[in-house]
Write a structure and sequence with these properties.
This protein has about 250 residues and is mainly alpha-helical. The chain is about 80% helix and about 0% strand. The protein has one domain (about 5-120, about 180-245): Four Helix Bundle (Hemerythrin (Met), subunit A). Bound molecules: protoporphyrin IX containing FE (2 copies). One protoporphyrin IX containing FE binds near residues 92, 137, 149, 170 and 233.
């Protein structure tokens, strides 16, 4: 059996976890600000009228849904370990429901824009990876909801399903980062022209490149938080229980 961590070790682990979480949140917020700025100032602004301005909602909604909301949702079991598990579970679900709504809007924004402008659907590598990511998200959401939102679901199945839920959830998050990076690159290649070449690094290219960097760094932070066994909720809870027993 693993030895239980001492109070000092637990404090150090907690400080490390919250330091990593704070840096990750800053990067996530930077990504959200950059994608909004990119759409508003560099790509012409926003509208909901089937034009290219409607398309500009697509990256904004996707970065918020798959990046900011989903990333936070998958680390809250760890960073909110001191809270009641049911409260954390409800928050985990609410964040995913919010993501689900934004993803549907983001898909509508681009598909409707393509249809209105007579542009083919699902022809690019980005669209293939993107639609697979969305399909996996919907599957994971439905399975997660069916298995964990209802107490009647058999406990043994819940337990056996959890490693799959963890693996699939992390996979969807990684795939969404691949989708975002390929989407940003594709948009900049569309914007490239002889009059305004990408290779000259105009301001829209700087913002797009910085956006991609912020997303990748944010994803590394989420990856660190969700993969470090020392940050697991159970580790902290077991220790807190032991402390309480010792002080009785
Ligand atoms: C997880 C995030 C993302 C997902 C799941 C995703 C998914 C998709 C899908 C399924 C399409 C195809 C729509 C159609 O064929 O009508 C598409 C199109 C597009 N997306 Fe994304 N997207 C994501 C993020 C982004 C980002 C951040 C950008 C940056 C600008 C972007 C740029 C584009 C572009 C330019 C198109 C139109 C061309 C094409 O169909 O490939 N996407 N996206
Ligand atoms: C697409 C949607 C979802 C994704 C991407 C996702 C992802 C994840 C991930 C990555 C974890 C592991 C967290 C960790 O190791 O600390 C997790 C845990 C969990 N999720 Fe989800 N999840 C989703 C939807 C749901 C839904 C709808 C429920 C239903 C209530 C749910 C219930 C749970 C529970 C109970 C845990 C266990 C946490 C623990 O015991 O440590 N998930 N989820």
């Amino acid at each position: 059996m693993e030895p239980t961590p001492t109070a000092r070790e637990l404090r150090q682990t907690s400080n490390l976890m919250y330091g990593c979480f704070a840096a990750t949140e800053v990067l996530g917020l930077v990504a959200v600000v950059l994608v909004v700025y990119w759409g508003a100032k560099e790509l012409g602004g926003f509208a909901w009228d089937g034009t290219g301005l409607q398309f500009n909602w697509h990256p904004v909604l996707m970065v918020i849904a798959f990046g900011f909301l989903m990333g936070n949702s998958i680390v809250i079991y760890r960073v909110l370990y001191f809270m009641d598990k049911l409260v954390v579970k409800v928050t985990h679900t609410i964040l995913h429901v919010a993501s689900l709504i934004l993803i549907i809007l983001a898909l509508y924004a681009v598909i409707n824009n393509h249809n209105e402008s007579n542009i083919a659907n699902m022809y690019s590598l980005h669209s293939w990876i993107g639609i697979t990511t969305c399909a996996l998200f919907f599957f994971q959401f439905s399975l997660g909801f069916a298995a964990y939102a209802f107490p009647q679901f058999p406990q043994s199945i819940k337990e056996n399903l959890m490693p799959i839920h963890r693996f699939l959830g992390t996979t969807v998050f990684i795939m969404s980062i691949v989708s975002m990076i390929s989407g940003i690159t594709e948009k900049m290649l569309f914007k490239n022209s002889d009059a305004d070449p990408y290779s000259d690094l105009p301001s829209w290219a700087y913002v797009g490149n910085f956006l991609g960097c912020a997303i990748v760094l944010y994803a590394i932070g989420i990856g660190l938080l969700v993969s470090n066994p020392a940050f697991k909720r159970d580790e902290h809870i077991a220790y807190m229980r032991q402390q309480n027993l010792n002080s009785d």
